[in-house]
Write a structure and sequence with these properties.
mainly alpha; 11 helices; about 240 residues; elongated; about 80% helix
Length: about 240
């Protein structure tokens, strides 16, 4: 494929780079927003607690059950496709693997998130008239919470880190994204797996959010640059 063909391809994908930039920017905004939400309205640990939150404020209940992460997964598909188009010339094999696994990541997260299931159950619990009915809905709610952190979520979390690591490694070799951007991606995804360290794992995984915020901010800027300059083959790293 010659230079003219590369330039033509980039021109055709400039709209995708802009969409990818917008999706990455929104994701960067969502990260601190989710932290603020969890601090202001700490998620309950029981179905009864969630039912109470939903009855008081359904939106807070949905946000406590990661509604923003559901939106993030949709945005993530756009970002993932933009990454594939931008980095496929560096290593198409790895980027195909990342794209395929990334779609699995999104699908498993959608399967694991039970926010709207809990909203429905909370309404049914509120209108129930007998203790037996209340007990049934509470049991169903606890089952939903088990699914929320169960196998599908664990697959999503681990594969998500693998996908992010693959993309960051390809970034390092591409010359399209800066080494700082790639390094932030590597740190965010590798440190996030610290979640599985006993006792302190949750604190390690929270620390990874700082690097993830920087990563998405840099990616957003770079995609916007690429969208504006898509007719050029050689781009200076951001």
């Amino acid at each position: 494929m010659n230079k003219a063909k590369f330039e033509q391809d980039d021109f055709h994908w400039q709209w995708l780079y802009r969409l990818g930039g917008a999706a990455a920017l929104i994701t960067a905004i969502f990260i601190p927003l989710q932290v603020v939400i969890f601090m202001a309205w700490p998620p309950p640990s029981t179905a009864q607690g969630y039912f109470t939150v939903f009855q008081n404020n359904p939106l807070v209940g949905l946000l406590d059950l990661d509604l923003l992460l559901v939106i993030d997964q949709i945005l993530g598909i756009v970002i993932l496709v933009a990454f594939y188009i931008a980095l496929r010339r560096t290593n198409e094999t790895l980027m195909i693997v990342a794209l395929a696994l990334g779609l699995v990541v999104a699908a498993t997260y959608f399967a694991s998130n039970t926010a709207f299931n809990m909203l429905t159950l909370s309404h049914q619990y509120a209108v129930a008239t007998t203790e037996a009915q209340h007990a049934v809905y509470l049991a169903a709610g606890e089952s939903m919470l088990a699914i929320y952190t169960g196998t599908a979520f664990q697959v999503y979390y681990i594969l998500g880190a693998v996908v992010g690591t693959i993309i960051s490694v390809v970034m390092l070799r591409s010359g399209i994204f800066s080494k700082t951007t790639a390094t932030m991606g590597l740190l965010a995804n590798i440190i996030s797996l610290g979640l599985y360290v006993p006792v302190v794992g949750i604190y390690i995984s929270i620390f990874s959010v700082l690097f993830l915020e920087i990563f998405y901010s840099l990616v957003a800027r770079r995609f916007f640059q690429m969208g504006r300059r898509a007719s050029q083959l050689v781009l200076q790293p951001a």
